[in-house]
Structure formats: structure tokens, C-alpha cells
Design brief:
Layout (H helix, E strand, L loop, with lengths): L16 H6 L3 H19 L34 E3 L6 E5 L3 E4 L7 E5 L4 E4 L1 E3 L4 E4 L2 E4 L3 E3 L1 E7 L6 H10 L6 E4 L5 E7 H14 L1
């Protein structure tokens, strides 16, 4: 609150887009300011100086945020889908970003170190994993190991299975159990887990 004399004026009533544009015109604002100055001077009985034209500084230009261009589908890396059947789980080795696109553009959220989540696909060169709602860098996560136990694995399947593991360079120990219902046990993770599951589904 103050005891200083004051006045409240109404410059104009904006009723259309033209009026709104006038309020963005610096010369228009200068003319209004000059008119106010003359009116106040007359009211207070003050003498005008050399010019009653008030200098109004140009409005500060606020830089616009760079508009993010949506990548074209053809420019994005191809994503191989695993679906629910062959998904596998990974753990974040540090705080990691989740990206909107397969080329790892537009980081929109962060997953904390130690967060465990599922992978539903991967890009060419396995640079990125497709996860729920986006993509993560493959190098920032650690695949979790899973032990698979197969039933009904005949002795004749042992050699093809071992040949498959060697050809795919899957460095996991295969344990065979011949007693009772023949079976095998193997511990694998990540895309190696996907390959083994596909092999077993194909040959069972």
C-alpha cells in the first residue's frame, strides 16, 4: 500500500486479432506512451520539454526452443521383435536413459541403476534394445542369466545341440542327465538365451 497519487487507465479493449497485433507493434506502443505522458503532464500542470515522445525499449526476444524433428521411418535402424515368447530380462548397470526412437534420439526418462526390465527386441548391430515405451543402449545393461532344463532330450540330440552351441559361439556348459527321462540343463542370458530357446522349440 502507498499514499502516493496514482491513476489507472485502460489503453484499449481488444476485441479482434488486429487489436492484438497492434499491441505487438513498437511504434503503436510509443504513440500510446506519448499520449499518456501528455495527459499526465497536463493534469499535473507540467510544462512539456523538447519532445513528449517517450522512448520505449524494444521487447526482449525470448529464443524459441529448437523444434525436434520426428525421424522418418526409413532413417531409423531396423528393429527385430522378440515378442513375449522370446523376451529376456536385463538390469541397468548405471542410471540410464530411455529414448523415444530406435536411433537413440530424444531421451525422455531415466531408469535407476539396478532396475530390472524386459527386452522385446533389438536393433541392427545390437546397439539398442527395445523396451516398454522406448529404447535403451545395449551397452548400459547386463542380461540376467536363466537356467533352462529340457525334458525328453535323447542321446542322439546331444551332438547336434553341442554343434549348435559351438556354431553360435555360445560359451555355456551343457549338462546332460541320462537317467529316467533324458534331459539337459544349460544356463544362458540375453540373445544367447533367445537362440537356445528357438533351437529347442524347433527340435522338440
Amino acid at each position: 500500500m502507498t499514499n502516493m497519487p496514482a491513476i489507472l487507465t485502460e489503453t484499449m479493449f481488444i476485441s479482434n486479432s488486429k487489436d492484438a497485433q497492434n499491441l505487438k507493434n513498437i511504434e503503436f506502443l510509443k504513440d500510446f506512451a506519448s499520449a499518456y505522458a501528455v495527459g499526465v503532464a497536463k493534469f499535473l500542470g507540467l510544462k512539456a520539454k523538447d519532445s513528449t515522445h517517450v522512448v520505449v525499449p524494444s521487447p526482449v526476444q525470448v529464443p524459441k526452443e529448437d523444434e525436434k524433428e520426428t525421424p522418418k521411418k526409413d532413417d531409423l535402424p531396423k528393429v527385430t521383435s522378440l515378442g513375449d515368447k522370446y523376451l529376456f530380462q536385463v538390469k541397468a548397470t548405471k542410471d540410464i536413459g530411455v529414448y523415444k526412437y530406435a536411433n537413440l534420439a530424444e531421451n525422455f526418462k531415466t531408469l535407476k541403476k539396478g532396475t530390472v526390465f524386459s527386452v522385446y527386441g533389438y536393433t541392427e548391430g545390437v546397439k539398442a534394445y527395445a523396451v516398454s515405451g522406448g529404447f535403451v543402449q545395449a551397452k548400459d545393461v547386463e542380461p540376467l542369466s536363466v537356467t533352462l532344463t529340457t525334458g525328453g532330450l535323447s542321446k542322439g540330440m546331444e551332438t547336434p545341440f553341442r554343434d549348435f552351441l559351438k556354431a553360435e559361439r555360445i560359451d555355456s556348459e551343457l549338462n546332460l542327465y541320462a537317467k529316467g527321462n533324458p534331459s539337459a540343463e544349460i544356463t544362458v542370458s540375453g540373445l544367447d538365451l533367445v537362440k537356445v530357446k528357438r533351437f529347442l522349440n524347433k527340435n522338440n
